[in-house]
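Before relying on records like the one below, remember that each one covers exactly one chain. Contacts with other chains, cofactors or solvent are not represented anywhere in the record.
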Amino acid sequence: MLENNNNVEDLDVNQTNKDGSSGLFLAARGGHIMVVQKLLDLGANIDAPGFHAASDPSWHLFLCAQKGGILQSLQAALASDDNAVAELLLDAGVKLTTQQQFDDAIQTAAFKGNIPNFQRLMAGDVGDFAPDIRPDPLQIALAGGKMRRAKLLLQSCTDTNEEKGFFSNALAAAIASEKLSIVQLVLDAGANIKLRGRYGFSLRAAVIINNFEITKCLLEKGTDPNEEDHELGDALQAAASRGNIER
């Protein structure tokens, strides 16, 4: 449709659906980079908002997804882990308008270990904002599965169990990488499996990301499967919500 000049002439590229989501937002959320580029070429408002339901399971790990509500195309691209679309929007001059949008974007980039876009956000590419939580370079490397960088940063780390950063601790960040090798790296460095992170206790976090290898590893290391978490729920509740019989 967008390739047909006859259709494009009368097309309102900024119209929204019943939920208030623009075409650009939906294309960014879906990772359709060619559609995003075409809409921008046709004059789509790069800052047009979109709506995200808090119950959408595809973004269950991210802060912005947990809240639900009005988001922006860059947030959608970051939450969908589409680096190319996020880079395109940043190159096109996308700007965030509120501190909350920035906080959600910076945390989402950190959660995914999206270091290049994280650095651009921190450098002020989307506006003059500062993060509400000081990011920890080690946690960002761990969450992104950057083994070489994580090893380098661990060499100068004096306490792998220090509570700080977006994930609260190094083990929680490692689990978010969904890589057993990264989790094993921090465990070998002395990470405490009993610490509670952003997604609850370590076993619950592993179950939430649906990773059998990490779950098995933590159980073998002696983590308590019956550890109660009255705020987020325990590992069994997480497994039930994910439909996991094996775990």
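The first helix runs from residue 5 to 9.
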